[in-house]
Amino acid sequence: MNIQWYPGHMTKAKRAMKEDIKLIDLIIELVDARVPLSSRNPDIDELGAGKSRIVLLNKSDLGDEKYNNAWAKYFQERGCYVIKVDSRNKGTLKQIGGLVQEACREKIERDRRRGIMNRPVRAMVVGIPNVGKSTFINSFAGKACAKTGNKPGVTKGNQWIRLNKTLELLDTPGILWPRFEDQQVGLRLALIGSINDQILNKDELAMELIAFLKDHYPNALPERYDTEEKAEAAEILSQIAKNRGCLVKGGEPDFEKAARLLIDDFRSGRLGRITLEFPEE
Questions:
Q1: Which long-range contacts (CB under 8 A, 24 or more apart) does 239-245 make?
Q2: Smallest Cα–Cα separation from 210: which of 249, 176, 237, 241?
Q3: What pLDDT does 44 receive?
Q4: Is the pTM of this model over 0.85?
Q5: What is the pLDDT of residue 54?
Q6: DSSP letter string over the chain?
Q7: pLDDT at position 157, please?
Q8: Could you tell me the strand order of the sheet in which 52-58 lies?
Q9: DSSP string, 243-265
Q10: Could you say which residues of the chain have pLDDT below 70?
Q11: Which of 225, 238, 215 is nearest to 266 (CA)?
């Protein structure tokens, strides 16, 4: 599969981010815990050079906990503050306030020496489409400040949100980068819903997912769909269609419907906690 998606509004959003980066003290970067490296926009490293960085491993409830911990260690070793979170669960966000103060300790001390007291930390919230930025902001703020949706591209412009006396957040649109040099990155982003589904071939995407699961989570498909573990990917998709009633006239398998079912089950966690990439790779 050759997957590329870079709609025009992302170019505009990147320009706006480049301007606003001058105004902020800290970058809070959300990544998807199932694909932490693939879901990082490499442009953010360039735009945010010199800024403190907190990485939130979001949707960690969907990722394999063993790899959640391995990825947390990976980012910590690279100088990032990192927390595993589920943006829909406010309890997982309680540590963030203290971590913001820790990450910006030098800035706060510098202000104090200059006689500037209680100036709020300004943090830019960044991430690729559909990684959960708006849900995070709304949960963290305790109110609906940002539009949310289960498809990419809901947030269109930058928005300042004052949380309290110590912290202001800048919500930014999800932006990708113009070209995926590694098609595995594009594949992983398609699987987690960060690429517009309308441009994807769901049958091919489902076959790629089946092949991955056979290698790394061999019990996931038999337990969910009663498929044969050693069957080929196409046969497994056919079995899913038959076992779940995804059929067309004449009782033939509806591969497209079965593919959508499989991908939705993966995205929602109904296949279990699955991570698609590993630090050792």
A1: none
A2: 237
A3: 86
A4: yes
A5: 95
A6: -------HHHHHHHHHHHHHGGG-SEEEEEEETTSTTTTS-HHHHHHTTTSEEEEEEETTTTS-HHHHHHHHHHHHTTT-EEEE--TT-GGGGTTHHHHHHHHTHHHHHHHHHTT--SPPEEEEEE-STTSSHHHHHHHHHTS--S---SSTT---S-EEEEEETTEEEEE------S--SSHHHHHHHHHHT-S-GGGS-HHHHHHHHHHHHHHH-TTHHHHHH---TTS-HHHHHHHHHHHTT-B-GGG-B-HHHHHHHHHHHHHHTTT-S--S--TT-
A7: 56
A8: 81-84, 52-58, 26-32, 121-126, 167-171, 159-164
A9: HTT-B-GGG-B-HHHHHHHHHHH
A10: 1-2, 4-8, 143-157, 178
A11: 225
- The residue behind tokens 């990917």 is 233
pLDDT score recorded for residue 143: 67
Q: Which two tokens stand for residue 178?
A: 């113009």
Residue appearing with tokens 């305790």: 142
